[in-house]
Amino acid sequence: MKLKTLSSIFLGSKKKLVELAQHNNSKFWLEIVPLLWIITFFILPLLTVFKISFAESVFGIPPFTEIFTVMKNYMFEIKLSLKNYITMFRDPYYVTAFINSLYLSVVSTILCFLIGFPMAYGIHRVRDRLKTIFLLLVSLSFWTSFLIRIYSWMSLLSVNGMINTALIKLGIISSPIQFIGTYFAVALGLVFCYLPFMIFPIYAVLEKVDKSYIESAYDLGCRPTKTFWRITVPLAKSGIISGSVLVFSATIGEFVVPELMGGADSITFGRVLWNEFFTNLDWSMSCALSIGMMLIITIPIFMVRKSEII
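The structure assignment produced for this chain is given below.
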């Protein structure tokens, strides 16, 4: 009887060990595959861009100097140039591009919030049958090409477009307004293209808000307006931050909208980066600009995360 009990315990423990090994093996592969993906398609390209940013531009293939050189006796020679970073912060051309891009991104983010929060709140408040329809209408713009949407706005905002024609017929203006080529047109295009990135995170957070908080505020005599600002808006803080980060990080490096709807004087970071890489063939400078843009994007994100932790 004792031998049978010991054998059953041994077999049971062995079975548990096998199950644990299989579980750990599957867990290992579930963790290692995303890690390999991030290393291959994010970290290694980013390190390559970071390395080229310290090189010097030359005429050749590739159009930059080598940083690491193998010398005799297994020695390495490292040549790092800070010329690109110094030029990026001293040259008024690049500084203006950074300021313009930052200005457009901040304005676009604020406008997306002012428009997107009421839309997300309205979708949250409607009946369940209508929520799917409204969410479908919001995402409907993604079903068409990005360029087609921009060209549609260019047609609407042109001198002979529908907006100028309507304003003239209503007697609001006497002559057409030149919208295309202004920062107003660029901001309008950015808001139109990236507004869903603000609506969806806020809506997702509002859907998770416990309605008992709002009902309790009503029971305590709080008015709907005060309840909205004291209860709903603070509870939607994480969605507002997520949507703002998405819109800001996407618009600061945008190239298509400023190129098509902006003028020659609307110098933005995306246009400068395109010209440096494809027109001037200055890969080292374009890589330095990319690293600078990445820092501009990541520093506010880390500041926001730090404020949330505190």
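Interim note for the steering committee: Residues 197 and 243 are 6 Å apart (CA to CA). The beta strands are 68-70, 76-78.
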